[in-house]
């Protein structure tokens, strides 16, 4: 009986093909899914310092939404697309984690 656990697999990196064994950590990893274009997600844990918009408001791409403080830096969070804010899941003073959905924008 053949042991399928230790089989080599083809792995393509920058148009080059390699044969490798996959680690258990790689096999059990959480799959990445592209977020919706209107989702504004925190890249770092931090604190919401100031909010410039409210739910139901129309925003333009590049418009300032809020200020997020992380690692002693103040980050200007801007709208990735034009649309209407359907969710505003933060308030001033909130401490948020990495990957927290802060704002959801529905395209026009």
CATH topology of the domain at 39-107: OB fold (Dihydrolipoamide Acetyltransferase, E2P)
Going across the major beta sheet, what is the strand order?
A: 3-10-8-5
Tell me, briefly, the overall form: elongated
Quick one: CATH class of the domain at 39-107? Mainly Beta
Number of strands: 10
- Integer-rounded radius of gyration: 20 Å
| Mean pLDDT figure | 93
Q: Approximately what portion of the residues adopt beta-strand conformation? A: over 45%
Terminal CA distance reads: 58 Å
Decide which structural class fits the backbone: mainly beta
Spans of at least 5 consecutive residues with low confidence? none
CATH superfamily of the domain at 39-107: RNA polymerase II/Efflux pump adaptor protein, barrel-sandwich hybrid domain
Write the CATH architecture name of the domain at 39-107.
Answer: Beta Barrel
Q: How many helix segments?
A: 1
Helical residue percent? under 10%
Reading the helices and strands in chain order gives EEHEEEEEEEE
Largest sheet: 4 strands, antiparallel
What does this structure look like?
The protein is mainly beta. The relative contact order is 0.23. The protein is built from one helix and ten strands; from the N terminus they run ββαββββββββ. 4% of the residues lie in helices and 45% in strands. The longest helix has 4 residues, at 24-27. The protein has a domain at 39-107: Beta Barrel (OB fold (Dihydrolipoamide Acetyltransferase, E2P)). The radius of gyration is 20 Å and the shape is elongated.
């Amino acid at each position: 009986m053949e042991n399928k656990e230790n089989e080599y697999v083809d792995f393509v990196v920058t148009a080059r093909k390699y044969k490798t064994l996959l680690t258990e950590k790689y096999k059990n990893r959480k799959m990445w899914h592209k977020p919706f274009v209107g989702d504004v997600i925190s890249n770092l844990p931090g604190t919401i310092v100031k909010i410039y918009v409210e739910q139901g408001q129309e925003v333009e791409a590049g418009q300032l939404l809020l200020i997020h403080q992380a690692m002693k830096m103040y980050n200007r969070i801007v709208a990735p697309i034009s649309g209407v804010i359907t969710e505003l899941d933060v308030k001033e003073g909130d401490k948020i984690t990495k990957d927290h959905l802060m704002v959801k924008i529905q395209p026009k």
